[in-house]
Specification:
Number of strands: 12
Order of helices and strands: HEEEEEEEEEEEE
Number of helices: 1
Shape: extended
Strand order of the largest sheet: 3-4-11-12
Number of domains: 1
Oligomer: single chain
Distance between the termini: 67 Å
Strand content: 35-45%
């Protein structure tokens, strides 16, 4: 009986050990995983990402939300699609959408997304 009790206690420990080993694998369902955002202090950071609307930002206790993402373009859900918000740069006779800037650093923290944008149109400047 004592040996049976010890075996019953070992089974959960073996399951936890197997689960931890599986999480260290670089494969997910047989596909190699790629880290999208990298942790940086309290934030998750990505440089020159390509995804739109992959971060929902919720307001108070309502159905409203803003969809942000790797690129500085936003969709508003009111509920129902409320529209898109997209910004651009104009300098002299040149223009560019911010989503096409040379360097976009996206910094996600719970409840907010922050962007640092650098581009030739800004010369040495940057937008935050």
């Amino acid at each position: 009986m004592k040996a049976f009790s010890i075996i019953l206690l070992l089974i959960p420990a073996l399951l936890v050990a197997h689960s931890c080993a599986a999480q260290n694998s670089s494969l997910w369902h047989g596909i190699e995983r790629e880290i999208h955002y990298k942790p940086d202090g309290e934030d998750f950071v990505l440089v020159n990402g390509k995804r739109r609307f992959n971060r929902a930002l919720y307001g108070g206790n309502t159905a409203f939300r803003a969809e942000a993402g790797d690129l500085p373009e936003f969709a508003l859900y009111l509920p129902g699609m409320g529209g898109n918000l997209k910004f651009g740069l104009i300098r002299n006779r040149k223009s560019k959408w911010l989503t096409e800037a040379d360097k976009i650093e996206t910094r996600y923290r719970p409840g907010s997304v922050r962007y640092t944008i650098k581009d030739g149109l800004l010369e040495q400047g940057e937008l935050n």
